[in-house]
Write a structure and sequence with these properties.
The chain is built from 10 helices and 10 strands. It has 263 residues and is an alpha/beta fold. Strand 8, helix 8 and strand 9 (217-220) form a beta-alpha-beta unit.
Amino acid sequence: MTGSDSGPLAGRTVVVTRATDQAGSLSCALRDRGATVVELPVIAIVDSADEGAALIAAAERAVDGGYDWIVVTSPNGASRVVDALKGRLFPGRIAVVGPKTAEPLLNTGHVVDLVPAKAVAEGLLAEFPAPMDGAAGSRVLLARAETARDVLPDGLRAAGWAVDVVVAYRNVVPEVDPEVLVAAATADLVTFTSESTVHRYHGLFAGSAGSSVVPVDAACIGPISAAAARSAGHRVVEAGSHSVAGLVDAVEAWAVSVGDLAD
């Protein structure tokens, strides 16, 4: 939990709300900079309710040419798409929401044709091409979490695409150690990597003794999580790039601003 005695974040306690199997890179980077890290996973990533059956069936259609594009919005979704393709290459084109989402695909030999400059659904939608003129049945496979915003499928349909939305995985509420919850309640800063982590975080504290003392300051990975955090009452610093590195930079910027205020 404890970081080093030196570094730009020395003396600061930061809450990491990512799932347990995804918290490592962020937690390590914060500790390396001196922070004391409280890992409070507010989500757990599990398989879809059908254990991937719908995604496997969609992957079969994709390999047979049934889709023009596969669109993936998270590394979790990308990993499950790779598994469903079972080593076969998709003959169409692939779009992802950001560089981290591309990695599981690129690492297994798939070509990623579109990575938007802005790593949010709106950014992907803004850069996504329209169907070719006169192309009937132009179809997109969108693999994503069970609960997600409808900006992307709605926007693609409005642009003329036929969209099949397939659940690749689910975000569920994990069991939380009460002692970890107590430690998180008095931290200096909380980090959020999605809108759902904001809501789940506050759900954990709802009605608890720590509800009035949860960290007021938050570092967010992008504009969607930042908007949710502001609505929940946090003072927000937003990452300049939508990545773990960008989030760590934002935490450092926060530490500097807090120090200036203290002076």
